[in-house]
Amino acid sequence: MLITIDALRADMVGALGGSPKVMPALSALAKQADYAGRAISPSSWTVPSMAALFTGFQPWRAQSWANDRAVLDDRFVTLPESLKKAGYKTSAFRSNHWLEAQFGYSQGFDLFQYLKEGKRAVAGLEQLKGGREFIWIHILPPHAPYIRRDPLLDRLDEIPPDMPHQLKPLDLEVYADPAVPLPADKERLFRAMYKLNAAFADTMLNRMLEALRRSGQWDKTLLVVTSDHGEEFKENGQIAHGGNLGHVLVEVPLVIKLPKGFQRKLAIQPGHRVATIRVGPTLITAAGGTPEPFTAPSFFEPFDKGALSELYLGNAVNRFSLVDGDLQLLWESHFGKPEPDYFRARYAGIGGQLQPPLAEPADAIFGRLQKQFATVLPLTGMAAEPPQLSLWRWTPQGTVKVEDPPTVQRLARQLKNAWLAANGNEIAPGSSVGKQPKLTPKQEEDLRSLGYVAGGKR
Question: Which residue has the higher pLDDT, 102 or 334?
Answer without folding.
Answer: 334
